[in-house]
């Protein structure tokens, strides 16, 4: 019997080629979208899952005087960990992590620069499950001047030599010698902690590190099983008051994130330097929801086409029932056909996934693969899910078809029309409502991203090349600058301690307005040389730029408008020009020489913060900014590289255009917009496939009516409008339902941006016109084909 069912199912699929292809392709696209997104979600969920349980990261909420709003940061203070373990039995262990980027290592004559080295406590490998290949990694993180390197670093430094026991040198801000005691496996890609080597914090320990108040590392705690983090956090205000000065304790609040939540749950946390490929969990969930909607739309197509063609199989049902078949048997047969169709769609879906994964990996910067053969459990889940999709798609058509009464069917009086037509209309409206909603969402996401990328930030970022420097190469910056300026390809050179577009550091400042009491404030700082304002064309609205002859003494400060209004908080009627010459600064008081117009030195996700700019270049500059002449980019970069190699022959040359840096700042937003756009396109495509199938069926069923109308004088235009009007009406209804839903969701989404576009109704009208046009193009082929057909052929049998 099963074999017979299979033959019948195959014959029906082959007989109704158009609807079968539509269903298979639609289901395959829906399944492929779901599989790709679920692979992405699974990859994101896998971050740090290979470590043990009960690991948390310590974070701070900082609110210093003068700051417009509090900020969350992933950094913490060095002495916090030991104090937490001493004060609370819930803390079983801890490890602190300090990072060094572009770390130089030398062995004999071979010098390499590795991306990131971590200085850690001796408990690091007790808390984290990173694999040791050979040697004793515990020695590396317990003993001073010992180091554990990854397999990749070992190959760079030693080639095929055994690295254990070898001595390597580091020459940076300080000179250190390390003995290699272990080789570790490369850090997994799904780990927020990426490193090329580990060494002990005791190798660099200095007394200043024990002071409270400085935030410069990450702290991870191993908690006792069953610890209530909320209850633990409630004890933190008393803890901070106990260990910090009373006036400082009010500036900090402590909170904790489980390690497994840090990767995807810390997008609102700044200074989060050790969080590889950080991605917002809300975006991941959004992708999953949209992919599910796409699959549902594909399932709706099947139900629509199956019920629409119910009359074609009515006699088959009647004959089978008249010779003894019961309803469960028929329902099982029809469900079997659906499952067969779903399995065929799965084969096509897996092929589509394999084809599209390279593009997805390139877009997301992930390394996702299709684990069909490497993980049998994955294949089992996909097969069971496919059978489930087949059952869900076919359960209603199976019950509907198996319900026909044989007497009515064989007399030709079965009713397959009005009520079922209403149900099909509801499904079509549901399909296009989802598709239109996704179209509107895509348009607003793209417009917001374009707005952020094109909005004038208040400074020039075109034709600016940035070159990173460390403590050694930074000492030669004056010579580097001098030689660059001697070439006509270079329009200007400056340097700073931080790069625009990155999260700038905060510091304390002292201010006194006329004879008022001295105030202490928290402020974002930018340390620069004295050509910074000129190169970036940052407008000074009051006062003047830094004086050439005062570079490096730190007694001149430029503040932004936001900072100026904060300083005049107690004098709201005073003009900001009255701040010029007022006492202001870090440890020793200097003066305010200028007030800059507010500019967006950070992502447009955030409002402009209070900012001071100081030409304290002797504090060390880490980023050179070089403005090049337009039209000569290639030649200018080659000249900059040659100049760097001449001055710093032992240091690699790295550069980046500032525009590219800001593209990285908005990379996650760009990824979201592209993925949502792709899923929206798939939803439209699958909906149109269903619409095409229904239009084909409608034209086929009304072929005699069309013939009569043509004989009576109806034009091709009249026939096309007759066949298209019903579907266009459904698309317009879908738009009316989707509009308020899209407005609510997008209005909520835009609240995450400090600077955002307005929601205008023109976009909704535009999407409505596009959706109607797409629907019209989809059904016009069948409508025109039916309208131009020879009526003699359709009426010959009458």
TrEMBL record:
Record Pfam families: FtsX, MacB_PCD
Top-rank lineage group of the source organism: Bacteria
Occurrences of domain MacB-like periplasmic core (ranges): 20-237
Main location: membrane
Subcellular location: Cell membrane
Keywords, alphabetical: Cell membrane, Membrane, Transmembrane, Transmembrane helix
Domain ABC3 transporter permease C-terminal: 289-406, 678-791
Membrane topology, record value: Multi-pass membrane protein
Sequence intervals crossing the membrane: 21-43, 286-305, 330-357, 377-401, 422-446, 675-698, 719-741, 761-781
Protein name per Swiss-Prot or TrEMBL: ABC transporter permease
Classification lineage: Bacteria, Pseudomonadati, Bacteroidota, Sphingobacteriia, Sphingobacteriales
